[in-house]
Amino acid sequence: MRIRFAANQLPDRLALTVPSMSDAADPRSKLLAKHGLAFGHSHAPNDRASFAKNVVVVTSGKGGVGKSTVAVNLASAFAQRDWKVGVLDADVYGPSVPRLLSLDDARLEWNDADRIVCAENFGIKVMSVGMTTPTPDTPLIWRSSVATSAMVQLLEDVEWGELDLLLIDMPPGTGDTQLTMAQEVRVTAAVVVTTPQLVATDDVRRAIRMLQEVKVPIAGIVENMSPFTAPDTGVKYALFGEGGGRWLAEQYHLPLLAELPFMLAAREAGDAGVPLMVSGAAEQKRPWDELATRLLQTGLLMAPRPQEEER
Ligand SMILES: Nc1ncnc2c1ncn2[C@@H]1O[C@H](COP(=O)(O)OP(=O)(O)OP(=O)(O)O)[C@@H](O)[C@H]1O
Ligand SMILES: [Mg+2]
């Protein structure tokens, strides 16, 4: 028997299945085994996202650096290039992808084959634990073993269709979700997001080391909230410091994929639920679009399926 998502009842029903952390050395493996889920290994991961030609995780050791913003804007950039794109919100405890894509009212639906239907907006398919709760402000009070199991289901029990790119928006840290993704999904590449200041790079270094440890290829570093130049005065403001992304890239011999400036419009677009890549002026879109180009230039991603293949 598998854990089933049931609208309105999900947290309680899943909570009942939670083993106590004290009586299991690895509660996750027990839980997965109980529900017939074989446990992958980061050196030989399961392929639970075989529906996607490329799987890119957007990650960072640090919270609030712009992972979700980067994920939805990258998704938009690829959707605008006619790629079939999905975003999996892996931030179980703080899902923000639904709001960033104006899908905060979306709730789970099942198709005739009893599979969960993705929400969709701006040409991007979306699945998030945020869509499983009765209201967007319902907190999920789950042990990580349950969160892990839920993540696996959001990959396997969802009708994603054939995707060219699945972007996974990761929570901050180097914990269970990060490990699960490395073990259960063949990740094509990781995009590591940092802000320019030293205190962020400390956490991000740990994330880089973890990715190396679990053998996930790193496409490169994205520095977000880089200094911006005021359009009216031409004065440069380094609100979050300067140079952290370049320093990390040099330190770990990784490409610096982008230095995305701090832009009021980026924050406003997030709150409005329309990515800057969709709503912004050409010069506001350019840094994100260049990030997509740089990601492709790493050579890690496979080309999208030709459109004819579907017909
Ligand atoms: N380049 C930018 N310019 C201005 N504001 C930005 C930029 N990038 C992100 N933000 C804003 O910073 C805040 C944090 O961004 P976001 O939620 O994407 O970060 P996160 O790393 O996903 O956070 P968490 O760790 O909580 O998941 C949001 O309010 C977002 O709108
Ligand atoms: Mg986030």
Polypeptide structure, described:
The chain is of the alpha/beta class and 311 residues long. The chain has one domain: Rossmann fold. The chain has helices at 10-15, 27-34, 67-79, 97-100, 144-156, 176-184, 198-213, 244-251, 264-272, 276-279, 282-297, and strands spanning 52-59, 85-89, 116-117, 119-121, 124-128, 158-159, 163-169, 189-194, 218-226, 228-229, 236-237, 256-261. The protein has an 8-stranded mixed beta sheet with strand order 4-5-2-7-1-8-9-12, with helices on both faces. It is globular, with a radius of gyration of 19 Å. 46% of the residues are buried. The site of adenosine-5'-triphosphate has 19 residues, from helix 3, strand 9 and helix 9.
Q: How many separate domains make up the residues?
A: 1
CATH class: Alpha Beta
Parts with pLDDT < 50 across at least 5 consecutive residues: 7-24
Please state the structural category.
Answer: alpha/beta
Spatial strand arrangement across the major sheet: 4-5-2-7-1-8-9-12
**Second rung of CATH, namely the architecture:** 3-Layer(aba) Sandwich
Hetero groups in this structure are: adenosine-5'-triphosphate, magnesium ion
Largest sheet data: 8 strands, mixed
Helix content: 25-40%
Strand content: 15-25%
Strand tally, please? 12
Instruction: Give the oligomeric state of the chains in this entry, treating copies of one chain as homo and distinct chains as hetero.
Output: single chain
From the spread of the alpha carbons, the general shape counts as globular
Average pLDDT taken over every residue:
87
CATH topology: Rossmann fold
SSE order: HHEHEHEEEHEEHEHEEEHEHHH
